[in-house]
Structures are given as C-alpha cells and as structure tokens.
Amino acid sequence: MIQRAYFDTIAKRIDEPRKFIQIIEGPRQVGKSTLIKQVLKEFSMPWVHFSADNVPATRSAWISDCWSTARNKLQMEKLPELLLVIDEVQKLLNWGEVVKKEWDEDTFNDVPIKVVLLGSSRVRLEKGLSESLKGRFETIKMPNWSLSEMQEAFGMTIDEYIYYGVYPGAADFRNDLDRWQEYISSSIVDATINNDILMDTPIAKPALLRQTFELSSAYSGQKVSLTKMIGQLQDAGNTTTLAHYLDLLNQSGMVCGLSKYAVDKARRRNSIPKYQVYNNALMSLYCEHNFESARANHKLWGRLFESAVGAHIMNCAYTGRFKVYYWRDGKDEVDFVLVKDSKVVAIEVKSNHEKDTSGLHVFQEKFHPFRSVLVGEEGLPVETFLKSDLRELFE
C-alpha cells in the first residue's frame, strides 16, 4: 500500500503542541484508517487506538471509556504526552458532546493527551462538529485517490481511470465486472446511504433518496432540471425534497449538482443543476456498458471523459476550498468554472472527437477570467491535468 501525501500533514499536526482536536474526514474507502495506522507505526509518541465500528450507536459513554484508558496509561507509565485515536467516532449518538466534555476536562486539568478522530460520514461529522466542538478542532480532508496514486499502486491506465474510477479497494477487480460492481454497490453505495445518511438523518422517502443518487450519478456531466428528474422518479415528491437529498449526497462525497455561474447569486441558486460524481466509478456503475463497449461508444466515452475530469476538479475543490460551477448562455457553454476569492478560472473539456471551443471564447470576452484552460484535444493533455494540483491555477 502506498503512503498518501496526507501522511506528512497528519504527522506534523500530531507533533505540534496540544491545541486542537485533529479530525481526519473524507468519503468511504479513501484510506483514512490505513493512513493513520501508517503514521502510528512510524511515530515515536505513545498512543492508544480504538474503533467504534462494532459499538452500538447508543453507547456514547464508550468514548469516555476510551479516554479513561488513555488517562490511565498516561499516569501509570508516567508519560510526558499521549495520542488518543478514535476511528468511526461519528457512528455514536451525541458523540460531539462527549468529546467536548472529555477534551475540556483535559484542557482544564492540563492533561497532555492529544486527540485524532476519524470519520467516513461527512454528514454526521459536520453535525457533531458544528453543534458541539466549535473552536476546538482542525480538519484534515482526504479526498478520493488521484490518477497518480492509482497508477503507482495498481498500474492503472488513463482509460481504466476514466471508466473504473479511483476506489483502491475495487482496483484489483477491474477485470471482473460483476465483482467490481458488487464491491461498489455494497461497500460504497449501500454503506454510505444506509450507514452514513439514513442512520440519523430524518428521510421521509429512503427509496427516493437512492433513486435520486442513481439517476444523478448516471447523468454525471449533464444538466437536467429537478422538474425533469421528478418525471423519471417514482413517488418523487417535489423539487425541494430532491434538492435536499442531492445536498446530503454532496455532503457524503458521492454526487453533487453544480450551479450555473453568474454574478447574481440568486441566479446561481435557481439554475438547472449539472450533475457531477466525486468518483467516476459511481457513473460507470449505472452506464450499462462494460469497459470495452463504453470505450467504443464515442458519445458515452465523451461523457465519461468529461465526468472524470469533473471528479478530479471536485476532489481538488474539497481540499483546496474553491467553488465549482458551470456556465451556459444559449448555445455557448463552459464545462467548469472555478472560483476562489475574486479569481475565476474557466475549464473546457474536449474529448478526441470534439473540437468546438467557441463557448470558452465567449466566456473570456464576457467575464475576463484569471485563467482559461482547455483540457484534451489541442489543449492540455488530460493525463497532465489529472495529475495536477488545481490550487496552482489561482496563482
């Protein structure tokens, strides 16, 4: 297993004087638990590690038990400091309140216990952090794997990256489509929807939530109004319900609905969403084509190609803290518009059979972006783009 770049960030934060709880967050199957184990293996500071994986959700007092064990070890072994690591902490009800109590008690009593918490549910993590732990934590955001990491670990080609996405646990199954689909369905989709969203978020129509996910993933790279989506869903309710479900799926690192770029913020909110998965495996799961037939279908491959670029953009935005939109005015459009502070970057994606870039030129004349990038044919090679840190586009 390779060592992700976030290793150094985690190690540096742990080595600093005790000031904040460190929260390592990210979607499922990106290697959070593996990485913290790699850090602990090479770290000289004494530590204790616990996982809430098999702890009943109502047993929030289990967190206090972990803390008590850490304090006892610190005292009995007369240690100058100790690291407490708790994995999947968000599975426990009211976890934020318990962590706040124990952390504040140590702070008051000058107990030198540093704390790292890991969680796979961004929905449930954010709820606990916003309600209980304000001013007490820092986050280390771990996105999906990059093309470079998948190539280094599994020898994945660019075409395999576009179709199979970047879940490392599924990479060895890419020559067995049934097994690959089963892994994505059970370990990613079912686990995220059932365990991360439905566990403690009131959902009136769980079946509709899943249908919304499946349809929006299949539409990745396309613009479809919520009203039109309702017409394709059973027992769909209204657009407000769909927008809420799409927001939950976005918070879970699954799929989002990008808004249209406009100077007027109201127009952004009321625009038709452009769907974008965070990992192209989720789009391929519902495209009804295997790798070979998808590669031979120029129209479908063009959509997968654009979606793969979009997934890279969304994962960079997750860690780089910039916003992502699309732009369209009549027949003119730009695939992605990135905004950070006052800087705007326009990105147009072209697969081999697409040539028209007039929309990018119109956007340049109208908005004068800080930078414009053409990805694909006659532009920046897609492999170069997919290996780049997009924060550099704003420099």
Polypeptide structure, described:
- With 395 residues, this protein is of the alpha/beta class.
- The chain has 2 domains: 6-141, P-loop containing nucleotide triphosphate hydrolases (Rossmann fold), CATH 3.40.50; 147-394, no CATH class.
- Helices cover 47% and strands 17% of the residues.
- It is built from 17 helices and 11 strands.
- The protein has helices at 6-15, 32-42, 61-76, 95-108, 122-132, 147-154, 158-164, 177-197, 206-218, 226-231, 239-251, 265-269, 280-284, 291-296, 298-320, 358-367, 382-386; strands at residues 21-25, 47-51, 82-87, 113-119, 137-141, 255-258, 274-277, 323-329, 332-340, 343-350, 371-376.
- The strands form 3 sheets. A 5-stranded parallel beta sheet has the order 2-3-4-1-5, sandwiched between helices. A 4-stranded mixed beta sheet has the order 8-9-10-11.
- α4 links the parallel β3 and β4.
- α1 crosses α2, α3 (61-76) runs parallel beside α4 and α9 crosses α11.
- It is globular and about 70 Å long.
- The mean pLDDT is 91.
